[in-house]
Each structure stands twice: as C-alpha cells, then as structure tokens.
Amino acid sequence: MFIDFSKYKYYLKPGTTDLRRAINGLSLMIQNDMSLNIFSKSLFLFCKKQRKLLKIVYWYETGFCIWQKD
To answer: How many CB atoms lie within 10 A of CB 28?
Structure first.
C-alpha cells in the first residue's frame, strides 16, 4: 500500500490535546472544534503538552487510519 500524501492537506491542532482519546474522540474534535470534514483528503496532527507524543488521523478509502509516534 502506497499513499501519495502530496495530494493531501495538513492540519495541526493548535494547543495541547489529550491523546488518550481514540479515533472517536479525535474525529469529534476535528469536526466540532476545528470545523473540518474528517472524510476529506487531509491529515490531522495532534500533539501532547510536552510534544513528545504525536498522533496523525486520516480517512483512507474505507476507514480511519491513526498513527502514533512516541
């Protein structure tokens, strides 16, 4: 599986995020707080207060993908 991320838009959530949230909580945050369409060709980035943990959420074909970097 190879995804061409050059065609995607990138959004970074300002401030800190409670990254104990799973895909449901993060997708609600994208729709409600950021007022963005979760199903668009976009990558949504979230980070923790100390910036030591990063999560990326995006929609790909038939489901959500979530990446985490410690």
So the answer is: 12
CA distances from 17 to 14, 21, 22, 26, 58 (A): 9, 9, 12, 9, 17
Q: How far apart, in whole angstroms, are the C-alpha atoms of residue 46 and residue 52?
A: 11
Instruction: Return the pLDDT at 1.
Output: 64
Tens digit of each residue's pLDDT (9 = 90 or more) over 10-53: 999 988 898 898 999 999 999 999 999 999 999 999 998 887 88
Please state the domain extents for the chain.
8-69
